[in-house]
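lol ok so funny story. i was supposed to be doing the assay writeup but got distracted and ended up predicting the structure for this chain instead. priorities right. anyway since i did it might as well share w the group, maybe its usefull for someone
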Amino acid sequence: MSSKVIPWYKRQKYGSQVKSDLAYQHSTKRVISQQTQRKSTCKSATQVQAQATEAMAEPAYTIPVFRQRTTEVTEETEEYQRVSTKVEKGLAAIQEELQRMKIATKAQVDSLAMEKEVKEMMYKKVDLDEIPRLPDFMVALRPHTVWEKTPVKLFCTVLGNPRPIVKWYKGGVPVDPLSAPGKYKIENKYGVHSLIISRCVVSDTAEYSAVASNAYGTATSTAAVTVRRAAGAGWSSQIGLVPHLTDIHPTKLEVTLVDCFPVTFGVEGESASLLCSMVVVPDLPNLPPVVQWYRDDKPLKPSHLAEMSVGGGVARLVLPHLAKDDEGLYTVRIYSKDGTAEHCAYLFVSDATAPVAGAPGAPMSVKAYDINSDYVLVAWKPPNTVNEAAITGYFVDRCEVGSDTWVQCNDAPVKVCKYPVHGLKVGHCYHFRVRAVNSAGISRPSRKSEKVTALDPAENERLQGSHEGVPSAPGQVVATRNTKSSVFVQWDAPKHTQGLMGYYIDGRIVGTKEWFPCNHKPFKHNRFVVHGLTPGESYVFRVQAVNVFGLSDESQESSPIEVESALATPSTPYGICMLSCDGSSMTVAWKSPKRCGGSKINAYYVDKRDADTLIWKEVNLSAILDRVCTVDNLTEGTFYEFKVQAANVAGVGVPSAPSLPMKCEAWNMEQPGPAYDLTFSEVRSHSLVLVWKAPVYTGASAVSGYFVDMAKKGSSEFVTLNQDAITQRYLQVTDLEEGESYVFRVRAVNAHGIGKPSMVTEAVCARPPPGTKEIVAGVDEETGDIFLSLEASDISTTSEFVWSKNYKAIGECPRIAITTKGRNSKLSFINPDKDDLGRYSVVVTDTDGVSASHTLTEDALNTMLELSHAIRNPIVPLKHGLNYEVLEKGHVRFWAQAVKISPSVSYRFVVNDKEVTSGEGHKMSHDVATGVIQMIVDNFTRASEGTYTVQIHDGKAKAQSSLVLVGDVFLAALKEAEFQRREYVRKQGAHFSEYLSFTVTEDCTVMLACKLANMKKETTFHWYKEDEEIVPETPPNVMSGACALPIPLFSRKDQGVYKAVIGDERGKDTSTFDISGQVFDDIINAIAKIAGESASDLVIQCTPEGIRLQCYMNYYTEEMKTVWKHKESKIASSEKMRIGGTAEMAWMQICDPSDKEKGLYTIEIYDGVKTHSRTFDLSGQAYTDAYEEYLRLKAAAFAEKNRGRVMGGLPDVVTIMEQKSLSLTCTVWGEPTPEVTWFKNEQEVASNEHTKITFDGGKFASLVINQVTPEDSGKYSINVRNKYGGEFVEITVSVYRHGEQIPEAKLGQPKMATPSVTTGLPKSPAPSSKTPTPSKSQTPALSMKSPTPASTAKSPTPAPKSPTPAPKSPTPAPKSPTPAPKSPTPALKSPTPAPQSPTPTPKSPGFKSPTPLAKSPTPSPKSPTPTPAPKSPTPSPARSIKSPTPPRFMKSPTPPRK
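and the output, tada:
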């Protein structure tokens, strides 16, 4: 890629030879060597004559010149030393001769001076030119008003002696033409100084000044420049558009190319833009320069495939739909008044992704020949095949213009690159395309051909085609160095070149087998520049020839060549600035060339001149290695200009542009001078690092810090980045806009203030170089060294990796070792510690800004030190340390697991400091796949207590792990081992495979279940509770393998230890299950869960005591966690609120309810996890109905309680001998006092002498028959009644004569004639102490009247004993049909039972009463007619008594079960 300008008078026919830049540099160097001898010392002795190669057929494309290189580097070195020695000797002789001539010349000059002085004294003449004179403007600046985007020229003429230096200012700021290339142009011709502003904008409106200075003073001329906009505010809007300057022709424009398109790479189907920016003077929007584009020396015309535009200082070519036909050398040629400015570069177009993997690329250059009325001959160029299968043929498609339908023309692939298409319609227009075919599939179609109309007839003879075949392979291929990313390839043409379309070039990296295409379109010439190569890599190349029949065989491969730049002299240094001046010397510095020429720069040469002369003088004869030079012997007050040349082994480069004039004036300011050598590194999308050097001139005190200023490119408004001065000479700038360009400057600070700013840097774009990589910190896996490493994305043969710590270069340091190999550089630390912490950076020289940095922190260093120690002292990493596991039969397994082990691993186990070997009692093994190492101890006993250790060796790595088994830990392991041994023995016979556990069925039956194994028919099974055997209704079936014991209606009484025992002749096994504590709670919770889920809604059941809420469920027991709530308040059981339940329901009774008991009632059943709730709203109509029913039941109960009744004392049957006295006495009760009536055979008995009836105290009723006779036999009855009701009790009396056999005891017949029997007094059971006593008659009568006086305690005559004791009486006492409760108030377990008759009934004599009988206050004698004195005022009636008015009870409906 190159650019050049060809003047009109030097334009020749393209194709003639032109010199390359390298050849020009060598010719220039020879001219310079003729001017001076001192620069010859830097020329390489191995310089070879540069040759200019022939230009490619494309115009204006310069072929790089390649030097002939000796085959051996040693030969070059020897030749260089030999010539250097010879040159040094010659130089010494020349210096001696010069010294001799200098002395002779000085003597001659002195003689001539004396003669001249004599003549001047004789002929004294005044020379006006020698009179000192201040600058004076003969022609001053004048103001200008111009249109926007038009040029303006300010000029003036100034005189003075010595010749003044003119500087231009805009608003007091110096005008720098380099700050905006092409914007300003400063000229000085024949004493006329001019400033040309090429393209004015509104911002150029300002006051411009020209300041002329010399040793005797200064002069200033000012003028205003006003730039008006064509359409805008003010008077300019009335003028209209910018006038058309018809007198300017395009060829009179000055055109300077600024930035041109590089070598470009594209892909089929994508788009590509080739841009060339330029500066045009004058830049007129309606008169752009003439631009012409070429591809392969053929002019391009604007079309839908090539869009061209010129304007805004940019010439643009857009290829919207790339195809391989677009590949080639593109040239842009711009016409100017100085000739033509042109630039060329290659565009590469690679194949798009094939529709089928392995399919070939698309053909190209499809054209139609021999156009006929019914057929057309279509020809094309084959694609390049590198790694794909060989092409077997082609398909040709056609499409009529205006249609999108493509029709395949040939059924079978054609093998040659041409095909006659038949069947065309006369007058119709067609496009053609071609697809290639190989064994993998069909390629993408080629670009369609130009439009073809089938009109002209032609002969068919040319359709037969040629009988020639594919061309022969090209000859020798030679590759030579070109640039750091390209190689120049040449080859010999094939023997026969007729019909040759071109060549395909392929490349391959040395050491690989993959070939890659270098071009995708046949190249016509036998030399080609391969671009896009990796610097530093070695490549080989091959070439194939192409014709219509296909590709030739590959040529022989070229010799390997490393990609690096061809040797050339360095480019020009730049940025010359003054660092210090003492009035007689000046210190200047400059920046190194941007291109070193493929060799390290080994010298700099500085020239100087007075600003008002044209003669340059050499400053240094010997080479300067640094980029700072102090120039001595200067005249104070004189302006000087400097230029610098760089040199390498290829020679001395082109001198730099002259610096700006610098005045030799002593610096006496107290502030420091400018910093210098500002460089950039680590340029990223949003940050960069700026590094600089300290000022040479420090001022009156030492430099204490620096300020860094930044501005966007093109702007003069600098922003200071740091508020406080920084002491270090670097700064990381952040928060940059990606893609934006910036400039920087640095100002030094000392105790006296801020010094001069440095020279403004070049603009830098905030965008990282392609392929940028960062520094990697790590630890070497083999040596364990901690290192920082960088792989450079770009490198050249002269590149060096410069490492720095805190941006100070690292020299020879015993703590750090730096190694570089190819693109990689590694900085290794030797015994690193905290002193090595800091920020490390590396810069790769002679690259486009390849650099990076890394901050080494203490945490990161500690982490890497740990890893380094692990690598240097390797260990076998363990997933699990030594552990133990008790196996079946009581064996104990000791094991450890490593992360990874190799098959060659070795290990040993040590127990109590004694190594254990694998053998009897110990088995050792390992598994490489899992990393497990184990030892199994067969007999684990008390002697096994101690410390166990495993030692592992795997290569260089080691590991050790110990396990201490002593004390409680050992006892636990021993217990487990013994248990496993017993288990093993147990399982040899019938045994439990699963021990007892519980489950709860849906009906809340608790099942104790177990599973059995190894059963036999003879095996027995027994259940026990607290060692008492339980015999279930269904015998257990051991052969089923499972047994279960149901426990229905589970409650607290079922707590205890249950045991299941199985056994046979092989032994027995036992399983126990303790139902208590937590186990009992778990069972209750399980029952509560089922009960809670089955619970019904709350229902009302009214009783005489109050309103009862009932909840039915599968099962209820008071052990369940049940809570009753009223309006979210928990209810405790009390006399007012009674809580209870039965097996089928839970209830809560509100005794004596009132309005405050209204509200929402809730029952909550908690099962340990979840709470089951049921609610009932006892309010409104529900409460009203329940309360009315409660009042009715309460009234009925009160009536039942207070009705008249017989409390006891009367037998059912009485047998008595005649002439005895019969006394029937009973206790009655009622409130109010009842009426008593006696009946015999349903006839009322009146009281008389024989039958006496008494009723004492309203409690004791008696019927006494004196001297009974058989007529007195019969059925007697007593009727006790008050207003609430009463009772009717019957007694059968049988009278027998003396001497008769006592009759059998039958109801209604006397049993015996023994009179004593008739006087048997049935015992009245005493009511419970909790039985309420009626308010009336609290104290019963102590005596009662009877026909037969009853004996009292003081009676002297004891009562006669009955011949038949009362307990043995054959006539039992009457039983009450209803068992007597202990109390109307239920027991604690059931505080509120279902309502029963409050009247208790006594048991007949001969049965044990559950309640002890109350003793009478006055003991009754054992008389045939005893008078009982019951303590309780409300004794229970006999069981045979029937209530004539039974109470009514309300039945509550039972809700359906869930």
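The chain has a mean pLDDT of 79. The radius of gyration is 65 Å.
back to the writeup now i swear
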